[in-house]
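Input:
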Amino acid sequence: SYELTQPPSVSVSPGQTASITCSGDKLGDKFVCWFQQKPGQSPVVVIYQDNKRPSGIPERFSGSNSGNTAALTISGTQTVDEADYYCQAWDGSTYVFGTGTKVTVL
Amino acid sequence: QVQLQQSGPGLVKPSQTLSLTCAISGESVSSNSATWNWIRQSPSRGLEWLGRTYYTSKWNNDYAASVRSRISINPDISKNQFSLQLESVTPEDTAVYYCARLGTYFDSWGQGTLVTVSS
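Output:
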């Protein structure tokens, strides 16, 4: 089965840039979404189709996808961005989610 | 904006059937622009897509291989909702279950239901 691997945790200082990677075989050939999930809440999309932001998502969120790796970048990270982040792709028969990355802002 | 409201029991006994319902407001379950999905989340399995139902001149279903032999997702047009049934549950099926709408992406989610499988 298809797998998406993320680092378990990323730490960032307020105002700095956080980068989260998502690795999968030939991931660049697929569209990737990124979800933000805060404790006790349902996931919310912050990036879709590799690099598009839904309305209402701040410009500090951006995405890229090439080769075997997709990345979510949070520029000028704020304390409200502290959350778990998941990548997601369609492998042709199943919607697959990444292992998740906890972003800590300190 | 589509809203999804989940309902169903939070405790199911082993070997029994897990049943959840997702009521839709703001769009028809028969819409040609969306699919209606169930996703679960547990510490051991992470986020796991379970399956979907959708209408394109007829009703269609797709299911994850991991649960295909014991899952059923069905629309209820009269109530504008869809349901999940998962048979022969074990403690491994303990998770938070979400319903979600997929348009271009998973843009609307239910509030989540913690289902515990225990005697």
